[in-house]
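Reopening this one. Same input as before:
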Amino acid sequence: MRRAVSKGSSHEGLTPLFVLHAVRRWWKVAAPLGILLAVAAAGTVFLLFEPQYLAIGRIRILGQQPHIAFPTEGSSNSSKQFVQTQLQLLRLPVVLLPVLADPKVQRHPEILEARDQLAYLTEAVQVKAIGDSEIYSIEYEASDPQRAKEVVDAVIASYMRYVATYDSEFRHKLSNALGLEIEKQKAATQLKWKQLQDLSQSTGVSPTPAAPRLAGLAAGDPLSDMRAMQVQAEADIIMLTAAIETEKRMANAPPEVTDADVERLVGADVLARKKELDARREQLEKLKAQATSQNNPTLQHQLAILKADEEKFAKDEQQLRAQTRVQLSSGVTQQFAARLGELEWKLSTAKATQEIVKKKIEEEEARGGVSMGDQLKVDYANRDLLQAENVSNVLLQQQARLSTEANAPSRVFALDGADGVRLPEAPDKQLPILEMLLALGIAFCCPFALAVGWEWTVKRVNTVDEIRHKVGMPILGEIASLPVYGYGRRASKRSSLSRQLFEESVDGLRTNIVLAESMRHVQVLAIASAVSSEGKTSVATHLAMSLARTSGKPILLIDGDMRAPDIHRMFDVVLNPGLAEVLNGDCHLDEAIAQSDFPLLSLLPAGELAADPHRLLHNGAFRSLLDELRKQYDYIVIDTPPVLAASEALVLAKHADATVVCAMRDRTRMNHIQQAYSRLEAAGANTVGVVMSGLPVRSYASRYGSYTYGKSHQPL
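Same output, byte for byte:
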């Protein structure tokens, strides 16, 4: 009955143990190859290395606006927003496009070779904070120190020009907008004065001298501070509203994006496409000249395709230029969005302050409990007039402040002097140490990665646990590697230990087979493997020798691999007559059986194959042969051909009482052993388990221990 195959997740995937097995198997090849590749990669990086010079310019961005007579009140939040806006501004098209238009910068090879010059410059120019100070560095790296200096100088100059131009234009437009608001406020004040006069005439009541006190405008009055805050909030709202409108007007009319700016960005892509189409056109013209007929269908088809591509190119070029122009325009307006956000935040704060103060004033007035008579109405109208006049006065002060502070120092200034940034004297890196180490490491690991990939593809068997979990077959035992004999006393000692461990592993397999309850009645045992060179013949031979040595009864070893026999060479006996001759009826069984030098172990060589092995095995002769041999031998061990390569192995395994499948560590593929197991089960063979051979002596001793004989108790 077919056993269920477990597919535990713990045994699937690329595990560290799997990688370790792959490295262990291939390190003798991968390590030298990795060293060669590493040296070559590091040498290539060194030869291709071009020293880069880093030019560094410095600017200072003040947290607060310098002033002449009127200090600017601002929160830390607005100061941070201003600084962040300036840092982003340094890498926006509004600053970098003039840099690309600089004749010196235009000639730089790295600029000329860039497909997207603006994107290249945006990426190459770095803006970094210097500690926690107000100083920021503007950095650019190039293979020539002069070119690096020129780019940084151009960026700082373009930025400073833009800041100066923007500040001047903004203050001018804001002053004009504020003048209009002052005129509106004056008109509102005149209206309130007229309303006061009309109310006074209609009631016959004049404002009392105590009106300022009642209105909360007299010095020392409880409402005085709140009225002053209300006046300031109203003036701030008017001022900020004017500033927002000014900013919006400037955003709606940003600096014009010129055709030269657009061409500078799309020129490389357009030129590359145009060259490709021209080359195709030239090639087709040559074919047209060589063609015997101008109506050649293939030629006409290619010309039609070219024409369609040229039309599409023209359309794509227009779209690309339009998209680039929109992109540049949106980049220019990003700065306005940041400043608008700051102004709108201030406006919302001023409005919130106004509402809070207004509610407090209303609460204080309600607490007074004074009835609204004619005199009080006139006094309150007078209060509104005085408050409007105060707002006008505050706005006039703001206008005077703008005029006075127009000559105040800039909030942003360069620190490198009139000569620009310092020319880099030495490259930023003398040697590409980090790059060489990285290339060396990657190149060295490449052969190992290939080895892991190859092992992942072939999926060789490394441990018995893999067979147990993926195939579902029981493990009968592990066989240590065959000892390798060397020269010298130390080598002889190691060979002796290896031989003892190997023999002990074979004896352990024999014990498991003999004592297993399920194999009590097994007399004929077939030793099979999926493919050749998986230790099948070695296991069969040494298992037969172990059975003969311990049972004291006659044991027969049959070489069932009639296509590629090997046992006769191992025991130095003649190949024929053998199994093939017996099955074919060419000789008697007694004539084919040979005696080995090992006591109680007889051999039935494969013989010389003169007919199809399938015909020899399917005519019932093999079953009859086994029936006769069962009477003469206590155990019969059959060395079968590989199951996947020679299907006659299935016949041998089916007629045996039990079949053991051999797997070789680091050689057997998992899919091979799965296929072999499936075929044996389908043929009706009693597959009892797997034997893993090829386990290194050290691994075997580490896993099972080394329990050797004493010097005076060596086995005979």
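So the earlier flakiness isn't reproducible anymore. For the record, The first strand starts at residue 53 and ends at 61.
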